[in-house]
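Section 4.2 – Deliverable D4.2 (structural model, holo form)

The reporting period included a commitment to supply a predicted holo structure for the target in complex with zinc ion. Inputs used:
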Amino acid sequence: MFTAELDGQPFTTTVGKILCIGRNYAAHAAELNNPLPDQAVLFIKAADAACDLRQPLQIPKDQGSVHHELEIALLMGKSLKHATPEEALDAIAGVGLGLDLTLRDVQAGLKQKGLPWERAKSFDGACPLSPFVSAANVSDWHNLHFSLTRNGQLQQQGHSANMLYPVAQLLSEMSSVFTINPGDVIMTGTPEGVGPLLPGDQLCLTLEDWLSVTSEVSA
Ligand code: ZN
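Output (structure tokens):
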């Protein structure tokens, strides 16, 4: 069980399921040679994938490359089912950053065979989460800048304006398939620049001037 932090306090409920979207940024879909889907590619990480980004990251060994996917993460404060985009925005408690850690070689093998992705995406610790700040900070969901440096090198730089499914529409779409509950986390997709993590890597993640979080990959 993992409890997220909102404005410096433990959130009222532990993290539930983690709802994710694949290919929400065209430039990232292109870098993996994936066509743009005609329907949102949704998948779920289990609650045990959630962990504290500030603690040394334990990544699987001997399963090929582990890629970082930097994403804006949303901590949900209300239930949603068949929500309109307006209702959806009102249910967001906090905004932060997450890493959708992906065993890229494992995923490639599963994709090739048409098999589910959980082994590559939903292993324990596959979703390190930053602390969250109140969603009340956000005046425009289409204008959020975020970045990831690895060992001092800029790897990923995102702007929410480039989301194919912007936050409100994404939540509305997800809630038409899955009931969203308080404590659930939404991962909003990764911009281009994904790449492998190695033991000892030093990471720095930023979201606007609200968050600047450092982390390292366990040696
Ligand atoms: Zn992702």
